[in-house]
Design a protein that fits this description.
Mean pLDDT: 76
Distance between the termini: 45 Å
Helix content: under 10%
Number of helices: 0
Low-confidence stretches: 84-102
Length: 107
């Protein structure tokens, strides 16, 4: 049968030059719509989010950092979940099974 949906684990370094970071949000976007998100209001960089039950397809991964003054930093990257198996696991952008990295957000 078709491969089961997978969990995408994504990590991002988010830093604010004033060290006033108050929120980090990860968004998984498909067709311009946020289909899953995770918000962190505590913790330290790097931040890691897990998106469960992700079906194959093309997505955008967005990370938004917000500081105490309301300033934001945004990083996006395309995310392709492909319907191929390697060692029994779906691969995402050849980055390894169930794994991608969002990158660095500094503002």
């Amino acid at each position: 049968g078709p491969p089961a949906p997978l969990t995408v684990t994504t990590t991002a370094n988010v830093t604010d030059t004033n060290n006033n970071l108050t929120q980090v949000e990860f968004q998984l976007i498909k067709g311009g719509v946020v289909v899953q998100n995770q918000v962190f209001t505590t913790g330290t960089s790097p931040y890691t989010a897990n998106f469960a039950n992700v079906a194959k397809g093309s997505y955008t991964l967005r990370v938004i950092g917000t500081d105490a003054l309301g300033a934001t930093g945004v990083k996006e990257r395309p995310l392709l979940v492909v319907d191929e198996t390697e060692n029994g696991a779906l691969r995402i952008n050849s980055g390894g099974p169930d794994y991608t990295t969002a990158g660095n957000v500094t503002f």
